[in-house]
Amino acid sequence: MRVLHTSDWHVGRTFHGRDLLGDQEAVLGGLADLVVEEQVDVVVVAGDLYDRAVPSGEAVQTCVRVLARIREAGAQLVVTSGNHDSAARVGAFAEFAAAGGLHLRTQVAGLHVPVELADEHGPVAVYGIPYLEPDPARRALQACSDVPGASAEIGSRGHTAVLTEAMNRIRADLAGRPAGTRSVVLAHAFVTGGDSSESERTIAVGGVEQVPGSVFDGVDYVALGHLHGPQRLAEHLRYSGSPLAYSFSEAAQRKSVWLVDLDADGLAAVQRRELPVPRRLATAKGELAELLEAPEHAELEDCYLSVTLTDEVRPLEPMRQLQQRFPHAVHLEWKPATGRATAPLRYAEIVRGRDDHALADQFVADCRGSEPTGSERALLGEALRAVAAAEGAK
Fold first, then answer.
1. Which residue(s) pair with 211 in the sheet?
2. Of the residues 28, 120, 253, 285, which has the maximum number of CB atoms within 10 A of its CB?
3. How sure is the predictor about 283, in pLDDT bands with cuts at 50, 70 and 90?
4. H or E element: which one contains 369?
5. Start and end of every Nuclease SbcCD subunit D C-terminal domain (predicted)?
6. Which residue has the higher pLDDT, 113 or 313?
7. What is the rounded CA–CA span in Å between residue 234 and residue 38?
8. Where do you find CATH 3.60.21.10 in the chain?
């Protein structure tokens, strides 16, 4: 059996205000071609199908089209909910969807019940663990403690405790199945040893969000979700990462998916397949005039661009000027080469012996890196007089 491991689609996410639905549909829809080319039997999505608990109608329709293309290409689908998803919304109509080959695993009470598949070597059990928010999951697990492998009481709190309980139930179910049953587990968690990026929402509870990889011992392959960079923690324990970059910290990542092969003995091989990049991410640093004129920056004109300006004086409307050459510039910082703008300000020293006019002038100088002009001082004086008049009228 061949499994395509994906996660963290985040359908509906924007990138610094830019709509990504078109890019997402292009990349995710392309998974259908990969299903055909690589003869994939089942595609798994290990959490964060959507970017929001209540996705927009456009995001839902995009997701429906992508899932339909993959199913039409011949693969079964197994999807779990992540920390960005609403489990109830993702899991709606799960029983009906399963009849069409879309298996939604979003209920804590049923995490020990696998999607049962088969190949020429026999059965394959695919278990989907939805994202387990520790306290609600703990209560839900204790409410259904009559299943094999369940603990009467989950003593400690946190992600490790609930995931350990979940895996105990999965291992107990697996032990009761025919000898030779292969197993795949989907889980959405931060496993110790993984590298995070800036685009993941923290799942820390009480300052602790990581769980040890040993929690997942005893199964053939664990398809992890949550971290957005593809990575291998062990041969059977991997993150596929997100299909698109969702922060500039991911600019160097090569987005990909894992092709997982199971034979009669379990995990046989794992291969990486890189995904297309609709628009590259890049960074640039320098003075505004140089960035706008230097020919060597031409290669950045079609990139999503994060710019750090080093001008001593903050330029006027820098983003508008940058976007005339770099239409996909989306992020801007001003860091003068001297570092003067980032020097710590000592409030008591700044205000001592200064009137409102002097303080307003200093504020402009600190924000922009240059003193206000005569016309700007006149405007500041007019604003201060208006405030004084309003205060006097009270």
1. 191
2. 28
3. very high
4. none
5. 278-365
6. 113
7. 23
8. 2-274
Exposed, middle or buried by CB within 10 Å (0-12, 13-18, 19+), for 265?
A: exposed
Whether residue 50 contacts residue 28, with contact meaning beta carbons closer than 8 Å, is answered with no
Inter-residue contact 130 to 111 (CB < 8 Å)? yes
Task: Kindly report the average pLDDT of the chain as a whole number.
Answer: 91
End-to-end CA distance of the chain: 78
- The CATH number, out of the four listed (3.50.50.60, 2.70.40.10, 3.40.50.1980, 3.60.21.10), of the domain defined by the range 2-274: 3.60.21.10
Q: Could you give the dihedral angle defined by the CA atoms of residues 110, 140, 107 and 229, in that order, rounded to the nearest 10 degrees?
A: -110
Distance of CA 16 to CAs 13, 107, 247, Å? 10, 33, 9
Contacts of 189 (CB under 8 A, 6+ apart): 131, 132, 159, 163, 203, 211, 224, 226
d(CA 61, CA 38): 26
What are the pLDDT digits (tens) for 47-68?
999 999 999 999 999 999 999 9
What percent of the chain is modeled with pLDDT above 70?
Answer: 94
pLDDT tens per residue, range 189-225? 999 988 888 787 776 655 457 899 999 999 999 999 9
Task: Output the six-digit token pair for 23.
Answer: 């890019």
Alpha-helix runs per DSSP H in 74-149: 87-90, 94-99, 134-143
Buried b / exposed e over 341-379, threshold 16 CB at 10 Å, is eeeeeeeeeeeeeeeeeeebbbebeeebbeebeeeeeee
Question: Which amino acid is located at 52 in the chain?
Answer: R
